[in-house]
Structure formats: C-alpha cells, structure tokens
Amino acid sequence: MDSSNSKPAAEVAQDVSPMFKIYEDGRVERLVGNEIVPPSFDPKTSVDSNDVVYSPENNLSARLYIPKNTNNPNHKLPLVVYIYGGGFCIYFAFHPTYHNYVNTLVSEAKVIAVFVDHRRAPEHPVPCAHEDSWAALKWVASHVDGQGPEDWLNHYADFERVFIYGDNAGGNIAHHKVMRLPREILDGFNVVGIVLAHTYFWGKEPVGDETIDAETRASIEKMWQAACPGTSGCDDLLINPFVGSSLANLECKRLKESGWGGEAEIIESKGEPHIFYLLSPTCDSAVAMRKKIAPFFNEI
Hints:
Family: Belongs to the 'GDXG' lipolytic enzyme family.
Protein name: Alpha/beta hydrolase fold-3 domain-containing protein
Pfam families: Abhydrolase_3
CATH class: Alpha Beta
Number of domains: 1
Distance between the termini: 69 Å
Radius of gyration: 20 Å
Largest sheet: 6 strands, mixed
CATH topology: Rossmann fold
Domain Alpha/beta hydrolase fold-3: 80-250
Number of strands: 9
GO molecular function: hydrolase activity
C-alpha cells in the first residue's frame, strides 16, 4: 500500500494520561471509563432500572432505579438524585461500575434514585455539566404534582425528602446545585440532605493532609485546566468553594463557622484510595461506608 498520500496521524496536543488525550485535530481519546451497560432488573439486589431522556435538546438521559418490591403508591420513598464523577471528563452515568453501585445502594437504602448523565469536558467545558445537572433537577421536580412523564417518580417518590448525592466531580456539581436552590426555588422539591463523596474540590494551597507532591498536584491542575479552559486557576470558585463564597447558603450541611445551624457527619476511611468504594464495593471499608450512608436517607 502506498502511504505517500495518506494524512499523518494527528499529534497529541495535551496528554492527561491515564485519563485522556486531546489531539491537535480536536479529537479526544478517553483511556478509561468507556464501557456502558443497559438498564435492567438486577436479581442480586431486586432493583429495577429504566432510562429516560431529561434533555432532548442535548440528547441527555438519566437512569431511574427503584426497589422491585415497591407496589404501594401510598408509601412514598426518599428520592436520591445522584450525580457521577470522573473529573468532568471521563466515565458515563451508565458505566457498569456505577450501575452496580447504585443498584446496591438503592437496595440497601430503600430509595428511588435518579442517576444523572451529563455532557463531558473537554468537548463541553465546565460549567456544561453543572448546567445539565440543573436541567435534570428541574426535570425531576416537574413530577412534584404527580403529572410528570415518568410513573415511578409520580407514584413513589417523596418530594419532601429529596437528597443530592455526588461523588468526585459529581460532588462538586452537587455542592453548586444545592447552593443554587435558595436562589431558584423549585416548588415542592424539598432537598433535605446532601452526600458528598470524595469530592473534587481543589485550590492553590493544600488543605489538611492533602498531597503536597508537586507532580501529583500539577497533574490534577492540568486536568482541571483541560476541563475548564476559561478558568481563573485552582482558586476559581467552581473548583474551590471556599473562595468568595458563604457556605451559610448550603441548607443541608454545616461546616464550622459556616453560619448555618444544620448537622454534618464526616465518614473517614483511613488508608483507602480515591473512590475505593466504587472500585472495590465489597471491601470492608466500602460496606462500612454504605452502612453509614444508606440509613441517612431515612432518618430525615
């Protein structure tokens, strides 16, 4: 074969391995998190799932999860809106790791869950994922009067007991969405709690026992720059919530000196790596973490 007229392969413009690479022609090669699984009834957990479109204009879906033994519309279940992580850039809401985790969580907690998919950077830079997640919240809230497009939410979701759950970058998004709620109230949609798991917050200066390794910090900062090219840096409010923001507006957690009188609990899993509870969901620490989180949805 004569390759003299073939186009040369595009050069890598930005290497954010082991997560992804951006090529000079604009193509993004994701190195992890590309698998997806369809919704299904899971016999191990007796949880059923179904995909629904919440944003036709952006072709975005959410996956609904419900315990199979739910058959009494007079007994409403707490509603958990879950926003996934991946540094804003990798994974899908329908990745098998997440699918399996949410099946288990829904089974143990006896809740209805709405797992939100969103557009990914760098093709769709931050704050696109934030905007999509807000659109998903509004779509969920459209079921408050029992007249929404999805019967599971109309019949079984308790909109007086709504929780937002976010991990990694999803925790970042969840924080910003709950901060937005007091300014843009969704009638009848009562968010009473938030779970932030291994949240993707960052800043120029390390906090607590956060790594001080220069190479590691540079790698994380490079990923943030790729996800949000217009950022002012690692002290941007979108990545560092302690810059120019009062946490007093966050109506479902209390941090010291925030000015809000709620309650918060910190779950620490000593010696475990980032998102270990997703990667090793049956390990002792992951089980212990779920046993703390699951009852939280039924205590309020």
